[in-house]
Amino acid sequence: MADVNSATESSMTVAASALRAQQARMRIIAENLANADSTARTAGGDPYRRQMAVFEPVTTAGGQGVKMTKVSPDPAPFRTEYAPGHPGADAQGYVKLPNVDPLIEAMDMRAAQRAYEANLNVIEAARAMDNSTLDLLKKLGVHVADDHSSAAAEQLADGKRAYESGDAAGARKYFEAALHLDGPAEIKGSAQYYLAAMDYQAKHYAAARNHAEAAAASAAEPERGWAEAMLQWRWEEHVPEPAPAGEPQAQ
């Protein structure tokens, strides 16, 4: 079963690298759309220039993955508009506008979404194939050593089921239990990811970031990739208001 597990983990590692890359691509698209109308502050100055994500192959533990290595400016010329009263207008009264086309960004966003979903399907299919192989071998009477048969793994599985069914309180109980029971570090790391997601949804940003960092360091795929993508978010924009003294934090 070592070869089967190795092949499954390799597939998930490669696909997870693509998830991270597409997450980064979506961030660049969001910045382009947000600045589609951002002009210069000074007369005749240049406005926002569209940015493009550049992907390159990267060697991962599972094979050839992908990574966003840099962000390059789009060399396309700026648009111009006659608006003599605009503070960014030049001596002739023309204002330079960003070289961002919302329609192109929308198509790029859709392509990123499809690529993300395709790689997520790879991870789910790899897991399903692995489980099918395990079930078949067990039916044939072949002894299979399950590396994830631990108390922590059971709590993680129960937590995922509760999380997917919308039972947030139950899911948190299982995930927190997984952290304190015997089991592989990657199992506990995966539990950390789900706790990070739940804390983020509850706007407990400091706790969410701590859990995400722990997940990025030790979780199995795809949770490790999801946690690494989460850490790319702009956390500095989230400054939760402290609760008044003597009152509990809002849930």
Q: What does the model show?
A:
- By secondary structure, this protein is mainly alpha-helical.
- It folds into 2 domains: 2-39 and 46-78 and 101-139; 151-237, Serine Threonine Protein Phosphatase 5, Tetratricopeptide repeat, CATH 1.25.40.
- The protein has helices spanning 2-34, 102-139, 151-164, 168-179, 185-201, 205-218, 223-230; strands spanning 51-60, 63-73, 79-82, 94-97.
- A two-stranded antiparallel ribbon has the order 1-2. A two-stranded antiparallel sheet has the order 3-4.
- A hairpin with a 2-residue loop joins β1 (51-60) and β2.
- α1 runs parallel beside α7 and α5 (185-201) packs across α7.
- It starts with a helix and ends in a 21-residue tail after the last helix.
- Mean pLDDT is 83; it is low at 239-251.
SSE map:
Layout: H1 2-34, E1 51-60, E2 63-73, E3 79-82, E4 94-97, H2 102-139, H3 151-164, H4 168-179, H5 185-201, H6 205-218, H7 223-230
Antiparallel strand pairs: 1-2, 3-4
Helix pairs in contact: 1-2, 1-7, 3-4, 3-5, 4-5, 5-6, 5-7, 6-7
What key phrases describe this protein's structure?
mainly alpha; Serine Threonine Protein Phosphatase 5, Tetratricopeptide repeat; 2 domains; two-stranded antiparallel sheet; two-stranded antiparallel ribbon; 7 helices
Distance between the termini: 44 Å
Kindly name the structural category. mainly alpha
Biggest β-sheet strands, sense, barrel: 2 strands, antiparallel
Uncertain residue segments: 239-251
What's the β-strand tally? 4
Form type: elongated
Radius of gyration: 23 Å
Number of domains: 2
Helix content: 40-55%
Strand coverage percent: 5-15%
Q: Averaging pLDDT over every residue, what do you get?
A: 83
